[in-house]
UniProtKB/TrEMBL annotation:
Gene3D superfamilies: FMN-linked oxidoreductases
Binding site for Mg(2+): 24, 53
Cofactor(s) annotated in UniProt: Mg(2+)
Organism: Mangrovimonas yunxiaonensis
MF terms (GO), sorted A to Z: heptaprenylglyceryl phosphate synthase activity; magnesium ion binding; phosphoglycerol geranylgeranyltransferase activity
HAMAP family named in the record: GGGP_HepGP_synthase
One Pfam match: PcrB
Record's function text: Prenyltransferase that catalyzes the transfer of the geranylgeranyl moiety of geranylgeranyl diphosphate (GGPP) to the C3 hydroxyl of sn-glycerol-1-phosphate (G1P).
InterPro entries assigned to the protein according to its UniProt record, in alphabetical order: GGGP/HepGP_synthase_I (IPR039074), GGGP/HepGP_synthase_sf (IPR038597), GGGP_HepGP_synthase (IPR008205), GGGP_synth (IPR010946)
Protein name per its UniProtKB record: Geranylgeranylglyceryl phosphate synthase
EC number(s) on file: 2.5.1.41
Family to which the UniProt record says this protein belongs: Belongs to the GGGP/HepGP synthase family. Group II subfamily.
Catalytic activity: sn-glycerol 1-phosphate + (2E,6E,10E)-geranylgeranyl diphosphate = sn-3-O-(geranylgeranyl)glycerol 1-phosphate + diphosphate
Length: 245
């Protein structure tokens, strides 16, 4: 499937809002996949992202294969490391951590991934990734050794996102971090959205439907939710197809 990005653009052009569930291979036993994906299929989730900051090497492929066996939704890798790349998925967010100044996460890991990627049929989607301060330290911060951008310096966040667009990224991802205390603020989302001509992904710390709606209203095109689905099985209930916002 090489149409993930085109489909995102088309759906956004039609005024649709997109939702990705983030599945962390470290936290999802293979035995739980079928039940979880059944819930996903019955909700208005549009994408399944798979990845994490600290996933054990070698477990992602089996998980993705199991997910693919139970859904037709696009499965997109959201990798914290080269070891998480698997051809079993449909696409990959080819992330560059633009908020940080660690060359390893700006370019080195991307170079290291090429030998693997060029032997896959994954749709590679260039994505500018910005980690924003959220009230507590997150795994991305620890693993990458970079500081998040201060949330009050909105202009710097906007300029960084726009620089990503000028550099040719196809998506910008505003990340508060998994389990963030404060999701990305509406002010940040709306100011970034006003300046961008490419789709905007927002994730980190979104725990309920109100926060989801706020992110959409502020301008998020695609919202990513991981922890809330892991910790609250009833959250899928609120997102059943018939309850679409
Ligand atoms: C993390 O943005 C994602 O990379 C999702 O965060 O787990 O807090 O939903 P949560």
């Amino acid at each position: 499937m090489k149409f993930i990005y085109q489909n995102i653009l088309q759906q956004i052009a039609q005024g649709k809002k997109l939702l990705a569930v983030l599945i962390d291979p470290d936290k999802m036993p293979l035995d739980n996949v079928e039940g979880t994906i059944k819930n996903v299929n019955e909700s208005w989730v549009t994408h399944i992202f798979v990845g994490g900051s600290t996933v054990k090497a070698g477990i992602t492929a089996a998980l993705v294969a199991q997910i693919k066996a139970h859904t037709t939704l696009p499965v997109v890798l959201f990798p914290g490391d080269v070891t998480q790349i698997t051809n079993k998925a449909d696409g990959i967010l080819f992330l560059s951590l633009l908020s940080g100044r660690n060359p390893e996460y700006l370019i080195d890991k991307q170079v290291a991934s090429v030998a693997k990627l060029k032997n896959t049929t994954l749709e590679v989607i260039p994505t500018g990734y910005l980690l924003i301060e959220n009230g507590k330290e997150t795994a991305v911060q620890r693993v990458t050794g970079t500081a998040p951008m201060p949330r009050h310096n909105v202009q710097q966040i906007v300029h960084t996102a726009k620089a990503g667009e000028y550099m040719g990224k196809h998506l910008i991802y505003l990340e508060a971090g998994s389990g963030a205390l404060h999701p990305i603020s509406e002010t940040i989302i709306s100011k970034v959205k006003q300046e961008l001509n490419i789709p905007l992904i927002v994730g980190g710390g979104i725990k309920n439907k109100n926060q989801l709606e706020s992110a959409y209203k502020a301008g998020a095109d695609l919202v990513v939710i991981g922890t809330a689905f892991e910790t609250d099985a009833t959250f899928f209930e609120a997102l059943k197809l018939e309850a679409k916002i």
